[in-house]
Amino acid sequence: MASCRWSTTPSPACAASLRLRSVQGFTSRQKLLWVELPLAAPVILAGVRTSVIISIGTAAIGSTVGALSLGSPIIEGLSGSNAAYIIQGAVVVGLLAIATDQLFALADARLRRATGRS
Questions:
Q1: Pairwise CA distance, residues 96 & 115, whole Å
Q2: What is the DSSP string of 43-95?
Q3: Does 6 reside within a domain?
């Protein structure tokens, strides 16, 4: 299983690993928990990471329809022609998105280290 890499398409070695687990007597549940989920974990984490970052951007845009959210200072600055408010809001939203992305990158690195993949 060491030759299985982080990609969306399984390599022949990964497919062989799945077949080997079936031959070794793993049940369907054991194969799911011990082979398939660890192989799929990085892709699942990447999807969650992307969804969270998009949600932060969407929360900032939500202020355009009157919602009190991350983008409120930006909208107030735009309506009052106050550049300081616009920059303040943009910096906060940008830093939150970057910090969240870095936390997910750290989680991804720990996941890779825990499963023995680089």
A1: 29
A2: HHHHHHHHHHHHHHHHHHHGGGGT--STTHHHHHHHHTT-HHHHHHHHHHHHH
A3: no
Q: Distance between CA 71 and CA 55 in Å, rounded?
A: 12
Please report whether residue 3 resides in a domain.
no
In a domain, 21, yes or no: yes
Cα–Cα distance for residue pair 85/74, rounded to 1 Å: 6
Domain that holds residue 76: 12-115
- Count of domains observed in the chain: 1
| Residue 118 contacts residue 112 (beta carbons within 8 Å) | yes
Radius of gyration of the chain (CA): 21
Determine, yes or no, domain membership for 97: yes
pTM: 0.72
Q: Spell out the per-residue pLDDT of the chain, length 118, in tens.
A: 444 555 555 566 666 666 666 657 778 888 888 878 888 888 899 999 999 999 999 999 988 888 888 889 999 999 999 999 999 999 999 999 999 999 999 999 998 888 776 6
Residue 4 and residue 1: Cα distance in Å, rounded? 6
